[in-house]
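Deviation from plan, reported transparently: FE2/S2 (inorganic) cluster complex.
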Amino acid sequence: MYSEKVMDHFQNPRNVGEIENAAGVGTVGNAKCGDIMRIYLDIDENQIIRDVKFKTFGCGAAVATSSMATEMVKGKSIQEAMQITNKAVAEALDGLPPVKMHCSLLAEEAIHAALWDYAEKNHITIEGLKKPKSDIHEGEEEENEEY
Ligand code: FES
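Because the crystal trials were delayed, the predicted structure below was used instead.
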């Protein structure tokens, strides 16, 4: 059910760890499954993402998407990083099972949260960036889940 790329990034995740004195740090969670993700960004004076690391308490799909997402933002400008959506990350992994798509949101939201932290510290505005949510389901419509 998982693509080879997903399995590869799950088993050998890239960019795991943390960055001391990171330019931006973002932490988000998924209250439904309890998974948590933290992203650290090292951003140079030209607003290029020099390095990125992540840590997660998450499922396999969350690990694989974070690994791929960190690879995709590394070396990019902050504007380019803003364009990287969870769908683009899932496509780069040759797809995710539909029930696991929400897991890929953790990586996107954590990157946005880290960019938000960077923007606040540097008193700048990043176009299109919204205040991060602490939970990826925050503000969602009431769901019709059956109990
Ligand atoms: Fe929680 Fe995948 S089940 S992020």
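The chain is about 35% helix and 15% strand. We consider this an acceptable substitute for the interim report.
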